[in-house]
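Protocol step 4 of 6.
Sequence for UBC core domain-containing protein (Anisodus acutangulus) entered exactly as in the expression construct, tag removed. Do not edit the line below.
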Amino acid sequence: MTLGSGGSSVVVPRNFRLLEELERGEKGIGDGTVSYGMDDGDDIYMRSWTGTIIGPHNSVHEGRIYQLKLFCDKDYPEKPPSVRFHSRINMTCVNHETGVVEPKKFDLLANWRREYTMEDILVKLKKEMAAPQNRKLVQPPEGTFF
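Step 5 output, structure tokens:
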């Protein structure tokens, strides 16, 4: 996020940006089917985050709750966080062995822009679950983890 008008802009520092995201995540997002927050409240660098996605309607994911881990390294938001499903899931953009969302196979990470947020990632992953290539894929048993 940048502030300013005209030709000048100010880049919001990393920690301010993450505090904004934390506040938004704690308030609840949109329709309540995605959420996120810090993994460890004592992590002053705000690196480790947990996300949750409730599977979209009219897909094999409907009614399932998926847990994810997001890691915002020191270069976030210039570079995207690493994203990994903790809950087992079968999706074309997720490594079947590790649960890692592979940036080359997930457009938002592949074409990351500074203004994107963790919320954007979770919302886009939920949309990806409902996409034709993922909507009907056979899923691992619910409650299994990577």
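Step 6, annotate. The longest strand covers residues 48-54.
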